[in-house]
Structures are given as C-alpha cells and as structure tokens.
Amino acid sequence: MYRYDGYDQAIVDARVAEFRDQVQRRLANEITEDQFKPLRLMNGLYLQLHAYMLRVAVPYGTMSGTQLRMLAHIARTYDRGYAHFTTRQNIQFNWIKLAEAPDLLAELATVEMHAIQTSGNCIRNISSDQFAGAAADEVADPRPYAELLRQWSSFHPEFSYLPRKFKIAVIASDTDRAAIQLHDIGLQLVRRDGDLGFKVWVGGGMGRTPMLGHVIRDFIPVAKYLSYCEAILRVYNRFGRRDNIYKARIKILVHEIGAAEFTRQVEAEWAEVEPLALDAPAAEYARIVTQFAEPPYDLAASDSIDRSDPDFAVWLDQNVHRHKQPGYAIATISLKPIGGIPGDASAGQMDLIADLAERYAFDEIRVTHSQNLVLAHVRKADLYAVWTALAAAGLATPNLDLVTDIIACPGLDYCALANARSIPVAQRIAERFTDLARQHDIGELKIKVSGCINACGHHHAGHIGILGVDRKGEEAYQLSLGGSGAEDASLARIIGPGFSEAGVVDAVEKVIETYRAVRTGPAERFLDTYRRVGEAPFKAAVYGVPA
Amino acid sequence: MIRLLTGNTLETGDVVWWDGTGWSLHLVDAVDVGAEGDMLLARTLAAERINDAALVDAVATPAGPRPRTIRERVRGAGPTVRLDLNRMAGDV
Ligand code: HEM
Ligand code: SF4
Looking at CA atoms only, how far is residue B16 from chain A in angstroms? Predict the structure, then answer.
C-alpha cells in the first residue's frame, strides 16, 4: 500500500490546522455561513437532514487495518457507532458536530486519511477495481496509476474550480468492476506490444442526464497518461458550461460538440501540454509502483479447501473469487444482510474486519462500488476461519451480485436533496427474496436505488433501477430496466408510470417472475434475457397490458 | 394549515423547531408562527446561528404539528430506518 511521504503528511496536517481556524471563526460568528459553507464542503463536511455528514476519502478504495480501526474509533467517538460505505468507495459519517470536526480530522490525519476534495467542483477521489493487485485477469495492478492521479489531482491549482465535480476511475481488466464508462474519465490499463498504456473513455456520468463515455484514445503510454489527463481537464475547464449547473458536467460538453471534435481538441491541447514535461519522472513511477509490491505470499499455500460445512460452501461459491496467486482467494464481505441498510457497518464490525485483514489478508481492506468490503488476499486454508468470524458478526451473507445485494443511496432518511427514501425500498425487496434457493435460482441481478435524480445509487446502471421521486410531498418510485455499469455498460430505461413503496416492491417481483418464465434457462442472466426479449413482457406483467 | 419555523443548529447540525421563545429539539413543541413567520425567518437568518432555516407547512393534530411533506416529517422524527436513533416515535 502507498504510505504518505513527508510532503503528503505536511499538506494534510496544514489543511486540518487551516480548517480548525475556519471553524473557530464561524462558531464565533466572525464569518457568515455563506462564507463558511464552501470552506467546509472543501473538507467533505455537508449539512444533511439531521446533522452534519462527513465524507472521508478512501483512495481507490484501499485501506489498512489501522485505517479501518480509526474509522471505527471515529464512528464510536464522534458519531453514533456506525458509518456508511458509498458507491464511490468512500465512507460517510452521519452525525458529526461542527465543533468536533477539526479534532476528528486531526485524528484521521494520523492514519494518512482526510476528507479533502470529497465535495466541490474538483477532481474527486479516484476509484478503482476492488480486486486490484489480486484479480487473475488484470494486466498489472492499476493502483500505482490511481495513486499518481491522486497526487496530481490533490490541490491541483488549475482544477480546483472546475465547472462541476469530476470523477475518474482506473481499472486493469476487461471485466469492469468500477463502472468506468459512467465516469467523467474512465481509464483501462492495457498491454500493447508488451508496453503498458491506457484506453481512455471520457464523458460518462449519471445524474439527471445519464450518458456512457466515449473512447477518445485506444492507447496512451503510461509514461504520458498524466499529461493526457491534464489536456482533457484543460479542454473541459475552458469550454465546460458554467452558466447552467445541469449542463456543467464534461459529458454535456462531449455530447454538445461531439466525441470526434472533443477528441480533436484534446489532442491539440495535448500537443501543447506534452512537451511541458508534466508527466511524472520514471523514478517517481518506480517509487510508487514499489509501494504496491506483491505481498509476501506463502508459496507453499495449498489450493484445497475443506467444503464439508454446507453453509461455508454456499458462501465460498457466491462471495469468493479466484486470485492470481495459487493457494489464495479474494473474499467479499457482504454489507447487505437481509433487511439491513446497504453499506452500513457498525464500529464493532469495522474493528473485526480490521483484525481479520491484519491477521489473514496482508493488512488490506477494499471498498467496492456496490457498497461491500473485500479481503483481497486470503490463503485458501484460512477462508474457513475468516468465514466463521464474519458469520458471527452478521457479515457472511452469501449474496454477492444476487437480488438482495442491492445498492442504495442514503435517500430521504438522511440526504437533504432526496425526494424519497431509498433504504426502506432496498430492505423490503431483500425481505421479499430472503429465500436463498430462490436468490440463487434468479442468479446475477443488480438492483440499484437512488432517492433522487442525482443518481448516487447508480439506478441508471441497474439491471433493475429504482428512482425515488416526489409526488406533491409524498414518495413515489420509478422503475427502469436494462442498465449495466460493467464492461457491457448500458443505461436503464423507465418502463412506465411510477409506484408507491409497496407497489414498487410488487412490481420488482413481477419483473423477476417474468424473467424466470421467459429466460432460455438458468444460465441466461436477467440482463441478457431483457436484452433478448425487450421490455414488452415485463411491462405487460407490471401494468397488466397485453405484451 | 399552520406554519412552522425550523432549521439546523450551527454547532451540531441538530434539527430544531421554533417553540415561541426559543429552539426546541422536539417537533411536538413547534408553534404556528402564522403571520410572524417571515419576520422570524429573516431574524433567524440574520443571526447566523441556525443553518438552512425555513418555514414549513404543517397541520395541527392532537399529537402535535404534522408537517405536510414527508421530508419535514423525516426531519422531525429522524431516520426511519434507525428507529433506535429517533427522537420521536410515531408516524412518518
Ligand atoms: C449525502 C449527501 C450527498 C449529496 C449532497 C450528493 C450530491 C450529489 C449530486 C448533486 C450529484 C449529481 C451531480 C451531477 O449530476 O452533476 C451526485 C451524483 C453522484 N453521487 Fe452523490 N450525493 C450525496 C451522497 C452520495 C452517496 C452516499 C454516494 C454513494 C452511495 C454518492 C455517489 C454519487 C454518484 C456515484 C453520483 C453519480 C455520479 C455522476 O453523476 O456521474 N453520493 N451526488
Ligand atoms: S441520489 Fe439524491 S437522495 Fe440519493 S444520496 Fe444522491 S442526492 Fe441524496
């Protein structure tokens, strides 16, 4: 894992001191809320419905046991004993007091964490593949490149006041576990003629105008990707719209001028930027790559697993993935217990996971965009011990990528922008499908729920997407089908008029039963069936009109 | 329809309601600000101690004021998915 150098630590510490002073001045009424609000947002502190919410960055979703234990400590000391992992691989605390925020941030800085650039019109936390460094299908670990992007984008003076927020994701496999086509920039590490480089997507995004990214370059050598990103950001910074917040994201610029013209402008800008030698020197790449060196694997680790406990075997088949190192596996910890709050973890659970990571997983935890956690390098021989400990803490639900593994944003239970609650909808759907045999029969199915058009819950990318809307002060839900945030990315389409909360749960069940009736067989996923047969049979089932 | 004055305190972010003389943490204490609402809101904003101050519509019920929108009812009660943290039981 990357460790801060003296420079990283100094800028984070300086920011904590600066914010402490700003908070004191605000509490003394020396500055107004209008003056203070942008300052607190730059430090990740939002005002939500019931309290301040602090969003802490987890760079590319990787953290150590010490860091996770600190998050647990913060949940206990400054919050109400729990926190929420988000679709951007970050963590949010829901009950923060303004006066205590500087102390909290100072404690966070002692474990090399912060909340800088987790809000505002800047480059946000870089996201990545939760299986980075462990996936059997990756060309190389993408995280050194994500880390370099983090350093380049942190306090970048030119890109601190962009037209709008900016999100970058980096992966290194053909399997996309980070939704790169739905990011402002999506980077896929590829190998061409032995050399590493990036395939570059630009202009994807969700929100009120969902769009998939366009490939603007098939290959940029890794030695040049920073200057290439610099060129993209410069074009956006200059021509992105500042007159209308709803048209300010880069996706709108790319859409309005066309991907070909946008590409031409980026290439022209890059021709100017590239000679300025903004790319990191080779020694700096090497320094960072070394920090992501492979852990000291046990080369004698056995590949056999004792499957005699049937509950363990079910978890093994659903939540454990192949690792590139023989004798090891990747274990996903579900934060989706049936009826629970998607992505929430208690301080006790965080402590336990930190312990397990230190003991069994080379001291690394990953956050996934679907709001689960991952132990990326577990010896197969240790899986049973890990599972036993997780199960005792309610963390071993064997439902990864199944109908009950639902993404949900905080929605109207917490969020000041929400139109409707998201969490209860996810809970009611999960409860409807509690039966594990039924879940397995349905197979891979990604349900994603957002409480408003901002789409933090990725509903546009859901195989089944649910959007909360406001109907004269009451909650209602729109159902859409056919989205995907993976390598086969697509945007879900609304199938018809909206529902009440109970109505949308029934509608989801009808959609799923229709899928089971029309699929070619259990091997055909919901998404593939939908793509083959179209929306008609689902619409008929839900609204009672003939197909 | 009655009107309530509400906001979040600067120090803690807690939801508070105007009770006629000061700020209460409990929706049940909220009073109808009626025609004085705009004046009280302006005064609140000028004081810079309550964030996101606003006037909200409600109906008076025997159990206390019931805000018109689900949003304000959730603000009044707390997250409906963590009843253990709720300030007030009751219907949202
Ligand atoms: C609770 C406070 C939050 C606020 C105020 C907030 C605000 C917003 C807004 C305004 C947008 C739309 C941006 C645009 O279209 O230009 C957005 C998008 C998004 N947010 Fe949030 N959000 C919040 C929480 C979250 C959480 C909890 C998550 C993760 C679960 C999240 C992840 C995202 C994602 C993935 C998008 C879509 C990105 C895109 O438009 O490309 N946000 N958010
Ligand atoms: S989608 Fe809307 S309701 Fe959900 S977290 Fe984002 S802004 Fe809040």
Answer: 9
